[in-house]
C-alpha cells in the first residue's frame, strides 16, 4: 500500500513537471496556472481533502523535488543537453571549503537512510577502515546502537554521524558478505587541494596538478586561482629561480571536469586575485584568450594579465576527461600562448553553465545548473567541433583500471561481471600479457584461481584461490596506492622522459 501511495505521488509529480508549480512562495517564484491558482498547491489541497491516505510533509517534499527534477529534465532532454540538471548538496556534509574539510574521507550514495560507500579517499582516516560497497547502517551513540532504518529521514542519519574535528564515531557497517563490523573513526581535517605541486625528481621540471576550478568565497574557501598562485610562486622562488629558460612547468589537467570561471579569470574585479589565465598569459587587447557568448549574443572576452611571457617553458597534460574550464585553460596554453599539449584528446565540451540556487528542503540544498552559452578559442573555434591539437601519449597500467568493487565471496566456476576488474588488476600487477593474460569477462576459471593464490601468497594473505573480503581489501589498498603514485603513472613518466630527452 505504501508503494501504491508513492507511485501515485510520483506519477502526479511527473505530470505536473510539464506545467508550472509551486510548493511554497518562499521556495521559487513561478507563473500561476489559469485562474490564478497554483496547480501543485491545488492538487495537494485536494489530496488533503479527499485522499484516503495521510500525506505528511516528507511526502510533499519528495513530490515537489520530483516535480522540479522532471521539469528540468524535460527541457534538457528536449535539447539533448546533458549538462542542465537539478543539483543536490547535503547541507553540512559536503565540504564548504574546496581545499579542506572535516569528515570521514568517503563518497557515498544514499540507500534509504543508509550510506553505501562508493569511494574512499587515499590517506584519509577512512582509508584501510572502510571500503567501496560497504553499507553504513547505523552508529553507536552513548553506548547504544542507532540503526538508520529506525530514523525518520536520511538527514537524521547524517546528524547522528556528524562530528567535530577530533571527535570519534563508531559506525555500524555491513560488508558485501553481510557481516557486521564496528568501525571506529576519528573526524579529522582532510586536505583536498584543487592545485598542488609534486616533486618529479628533476631540477629541470616543475609540476602543478589542477583537479578542478573552485571559486573564491569570503571566509569559506580561497579559490583555485589563489591556491595556484601560491604553488606557482613557491616554484618560481625555488627551483625555477635560476637557469629559468631551461626549465619546464608541467600543468596536469587530466580528469579535471572544470568549474568556476572566476578561478580562470576574474574580469579584474577589485579585491580578487587574478585568475590563472591572467597569471600565465600576456595581455593583448587585440586578441582574447577566449570568448563566451550567451543566447542573446552578448559577448564577453577574456584577456591575459602579464606584461611579458614566462621565462620558462610550459606544457600541459590532458586526457579525455579534461573538460569545460580545464579545456579553456588548455586551449589558451595551446592556441593563444603556443605551448604544447600532451596526452590524449580532451572531452570537447564547448558550452558553459551557470547555477541558480532554489532552496533547502529537508537538509538538502537544491540548485538549477543550466547551460547558458558557448565558449570559443582562437578564431571563433569551439572544442566540440574543433578539437585541440594534442601530442599523443597513451595511458596504460594501473591508471587505466576501474576501481575494484567487491560484491561478495567468489570462487572457481563463478560468474560475475565485477570479477573482471580484479582480473584486469592482476594482469597489470603481474604484467600478464598475450597468452599469459587472464580473461577479464568475469568468469572465475582455473587461471584466475591460480593468480589469486599467487597474489595471496605474495601479500601474506590466506591462500585460498578465492576472491574473499581480505583479498579484495588488499587489492583496493594497492590500487589506491598505485593510482596516487606518480612513479606508477605511465603517461606522466613518458612525458617526463620526453622532456628530459629533449633538453
Basic shape: globular
Number of strands: 19
Question: How many domains, as an integer?
Answer: 4
CATH class of the largest domain: Alpha Beta
Distance between the termini: 73 Å
Specify Rg, calculated over alpha carbons.
26 Å
Class computed from helices, strands and strand pairing:
alpha+beta
Largest sheet: 6 strands, antiparallel
Corresponding CATH superfamily of the largest domain: 2-enoyl-CoA Hydratase, Chain A, domain 1
The helix content is 25-40%
As for the CATH topology of the largest domain, it is 2-enoyl-CoA Hydratase, Chain A, domain 1
What is the architecture of the largest domain at the second tier of CATH? Alpha-Beta Complex
Strand content: 15-25%
Poorly predicted sequence stretches spanning 5 or more consecutive residues: 1-33
Task: Estimate the mean pLDDT confidence.
Answer: 90
How is this structure best summarized?
This protein is an alpha+beta fold.
Overview of the molecule:
With 503 residues, the protein is α+β, with helices and mostly antiparallel strands. It has four domains: 2-80, no CATH class; 100-190, Pdz3 Domain, CATH 2.30.42.10; 195-392, 2-enoyl-CoA Hydratase, Chain A, domain 1 (Alpha-Beta Complex), CATH 3.90.226; 397-487, PGBD-like superfamily/PGBD (Muramoyl-pentapeptide Carboxypeptidase, domain 1), CATH 1.10.101. The chain has helices spanning 2-16, 39-50, 57-78, 154-161, 224-236, 261-264, 276-280, 325-336, 419-429, 446-458, 469-483, 490-502, and strands spanning 85-90, 100-103, 106-111, 114-120, 135-141, 144-147, 168-174, 180-186, 188-191, 195-197, 205-210, 248-252, 290-294, 299-302, 313-318, 340-343, 351-361, 364-376, 391-392. Strands 3, 4, 5, 6, 7 and 8 form a six-stranded antiparallel β-sheet that branches. Strands 10-11-12-15-16-19 form a six-stranded mixed β-sheet, sandwiched between helices. Strands 1, 13, 14, 17 and 18 form a five-stranded antiparallel β-sheet that branches. A hairpin with a 2-residue loop joins β5 and β6 (144-147). α1 packs across α3. 31% of the residues are buried.
Amino acid at each position: 500500500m505504501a508503494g501504491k501511495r508513492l507511485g501515485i505521488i510520483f506519477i502526479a509529480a511527473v505530470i505536473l513537471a510539464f506545467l508550472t508549480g509551486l510548493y511554497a512562495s518562499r521556495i521559487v517564484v513561478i507563473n500561476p496556472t489559469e485562474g490564478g491558482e497554483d496547480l501543485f498547491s491545488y492538487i495537494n489541497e485536494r489530496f488533503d481533502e479527499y485522499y484516503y491516505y495521510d500525506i505528511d510533509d516528507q511526502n510533499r517534499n519528495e513530490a515537489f523535488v520530483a516535480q522540479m527534477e522532471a521539469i528540468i529534465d524535460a527541457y534538457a532532454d528536449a535539447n539533448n543537453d546533458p549538462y542542465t540538471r537539478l543539483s543536490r548538496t547535503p547541507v553540512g556534509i559536503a565540504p564548504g571549503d574546496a581545499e579542506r574539510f572535516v569528515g570521514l574521507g568517503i563518497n557515498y550514495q544514499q540507500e534509504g537512510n543508509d550510506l553505501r560507500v562508493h569511494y574512499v579517499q587515499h590517506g584519509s582516516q577512512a582509508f584501510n577502515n572502510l571500503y567501496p560497497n560497504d553499507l553504513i547502517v547505523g552508529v553507536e551513540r552513548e553506548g547504544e546502537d542507532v540503526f538508520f532504518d529506525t530514523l525518520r529521514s536520511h538527514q537524521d542519519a547524517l546528524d547522528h554521524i556528524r562530528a567535530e574535528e577530533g571527535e570519534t564515531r563508531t559506525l555500524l557497517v555491513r560488508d558485501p558478505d553481510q557481516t557486521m563490523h564496528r568501525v571506529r573513526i576519528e573526524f579529522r581535517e582532510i586536505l583536498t587541494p584543487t592545485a598542488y605541486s609534486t616533486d618529479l625528481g628533476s631540477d629541470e621540471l616543475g609540476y602543478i596538478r589542477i583537479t578542478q576550478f573552485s571559486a573564491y568565497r569570503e571566509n569559506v574557501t580561497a579559490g583555485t586561482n589563489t591556491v595556484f598562485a601560491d604553488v606557482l610562486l613557491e616554484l618560481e622562488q625555488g627551483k625555477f629561480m635560476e637557469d629559468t629558460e631551461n626549465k619546464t612547468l608541467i600543468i596536469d589537467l587530466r580528469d579535471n571536469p572544470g568549474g568556476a570561471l572566476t578561478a580562470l579569470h576574474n574580469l579584474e574585479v577589485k579585491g580578487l586575485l587574478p585568475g590563472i589565465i591572467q597569471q600565465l598569459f600576456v595581455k593583448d587587447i587585440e586578441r582574447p584568450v577566449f570568448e563566451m557568448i550567451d543566447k542573446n549574443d552578448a559577448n564577453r572576452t577574456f584577456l591575459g594579465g602579464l606584461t611579458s611571457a614566462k621565462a620558462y617553458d610550459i606544457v600541459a597534460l590532458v586526457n579525455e576527461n579534461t573538460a569545460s574550464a580545464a579545456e579553456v585553460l588548455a586551449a589558451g596554453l595551446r592556441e593563444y600562448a603556443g605551448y604544447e599539449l600532451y596526452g590524449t584528446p580532451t572531452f570537447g565540451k564547448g558550452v558553459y553553465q551557470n547555477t541558480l540556487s532554489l532552496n533547502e528542503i529537508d537538509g538538502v540544498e537544491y540548485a538549477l545548473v543550466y547551460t547558458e552559452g558557448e565558449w570559443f578559442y582562437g578564431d571563433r573555434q569551439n572544442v566540440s567541433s574543433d578539437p585541440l591539437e594534442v601530442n599523443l601519449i597513451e595511458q596504460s597500467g594501473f591508471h587505466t583500471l576501474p576501481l575494484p568493487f567487491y560484491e561478495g565471496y567468489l570462487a572457481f566456476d563463478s560468474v560475475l561481471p565485477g570479477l573482471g576488474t580484479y582480473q584486469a588488476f592482476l594482469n597489470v600487477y603481474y604484467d600478464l600479457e598475450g597468452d599469459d593474460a587472464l580473461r577479464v569477462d568475469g568468469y572465475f576459471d582455473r587461471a584466475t584461481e591460480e593468480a589469486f593464490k599467487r597474489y595471496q601468497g605474495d601479500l601474506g594473505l590466506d591462500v585460498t584461490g578465492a576472491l574473499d573480503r581480505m583479498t579484495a581489501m588488499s587489492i583496493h589498498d594497492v590500487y589506491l596506492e598505485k593510482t596516487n603514485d606518480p612513479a606508477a603513472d605511465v603517461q606522466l613518466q613518458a612525458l617526463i622522459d620526453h622532456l628530459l630527452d629533449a633538453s
